[in-house]
Fold:
Amino acid sequence: MTVSLSGRGVGHSFGDLTVLDGLDFEARPGEVLGLVGPSGCGKSTLLELIGGLRQPDRGRIEIDGKEGEDARLERCAWMPQKDCLLPWYTALDNAGLALRNLGRSKGEARAEAGLLFDRFGLAGFEQSRPDQLSGGMRQRVAFLRTLVSRKDVLLLDEPFASLDAITRAELQEWLLPVLDEKDHTVVLVTHDVEEALYLSDAVLALTSRPGRVAASMKAPSTTGFPREQVVTDPGFTERREELLALLRQSSPSIAGGAR
Amino acid sequence: MKAVGNTARLWLPPLLLIILLLGLWQLAADTGFLAGALGLEDFLVPSPGQIGEVLWQDRSLIAENAEVTLVEILAGFGIALVVGVGVATALHFSELLRRASYPVVVASQTIPIIVIAPILVVWFGYGIGPKLAVIALICFFPITVNTLDGLRSVDPDSVKMLRTLYAGKSQIFRRVEAPAALPYLFSGAKIAVAVAVIGAVFGEWAGSERGLGHLMLQDNAQLMTARLFASVAVLSLIAILLFTLIGLAERALLRWR
Ligand SMILES: Nc1ncnc2c1ncn2[C@@H]1O[C@H](COP(=O)(O)OP(=O)(O)O)[C@@H](O)[C@H]1O
Ligand SMILES: [Mg+2]
Structure:
């Protein structure tokens, strides 16, 4: 099942610090919405608001027409900025956490999560402890853990920010067909404009704190082509520069380019 | 081969130091230097050799009493472990309970054991009861406070992540809070066994018919200094042994670290 996601006039403050202000956004069922913006503009906070981990001070967020905190928590799976893999579990048991929480047996959870291990190039690392995995593998396990929950909405917070450029490009290329094939509605936070355009259907650029919408842009269709070809395509680079210019205007701190 | 080498490198320096200190002590006692310096009769300042001799001669008497004390320590520590972990868990789950009772937990540590032990003997007699109470009381604090700190040390993002993956309070406890608290619990338990030995001696001093503490009082009164030292050595050995056992359990249980 696919669900829609929308926010109207969303604002949030921590004490005196206004982090988000009057934000409108919308993702259609099955769409990937990219969120870019400078550090500290409230991207992570927004994901937590969407996921029902917090309630916004102002405005409303609806998933599939439902507004309650619990209703949103029920539908969203969150991949935090740190991978948050639990060191006392193997990679496989980390990936199967959602199933265990649903009351499935250890064996069932392992069998089901194990299928995805094979498909996502993690075969052979089922019994590894998180600290034995490379950064790219850790992110993949953390993503699988999110996917295994079978929730309608995936909230991904800078999933590749901690990786080196080559691994990041590899994982972007790996993630694209996965997001396309499944009918999840996805909100992808990143501070990398290129990553946002490559992986999303639409991109929302936020201003520096308090985060407001600086621009909203449809992303070019990227599926089916090698990543290198896509990101060097003139249509793509044009939009990337346009988005960067917009971000630069609305938030002086990001001047300096895509990072 | 390499492992043996590493173990040797680890144990050799302290071992050599202990042997050196014992040798110096032996020398100082044999020559009468130590007794002279302290202005004492020679028999009041036994050498390590003499202590070893007494340890061997009176081995059954010492072992009998050591067993009594060891049982007290294990039982008192066990009670503190169960109660301490239980209390820490309860305080973790209830903000109100935590605010209300944390001062009481801290106050429990400010009670001077040496003062309360005689009172416990008056109340509960010369049996094992007062000793268990004293030992449990001093073990309770490090175990409870450490466990509570451990339960609260969890990364809030891990908890949020689990909440979005269908986890309720009890699952969050099982999957992140309890495992995160385990290393803290072990630290608390190590401190607790070390002080448990002291607690056992205080408990026996306050009133007892058996145990190493009791034997020490007797020997002290009869100026049997060598056996007094022998009891102290056995007590230290018990403390080191228990400490090591907990360390081994820690390594077995905390493989992920
Ligand atoms: N729990 C919190 N309490 C107080 N301030 C917070 C909290 N979480 C985030 N902030 C502040 O809100 C601002 C936005 O944070 P965040 O949403 O993490 O930004 P981003 O993810 O875009 O880098 C930052 O200035 C941060 O310090
Ligand atoms: Mg962030």
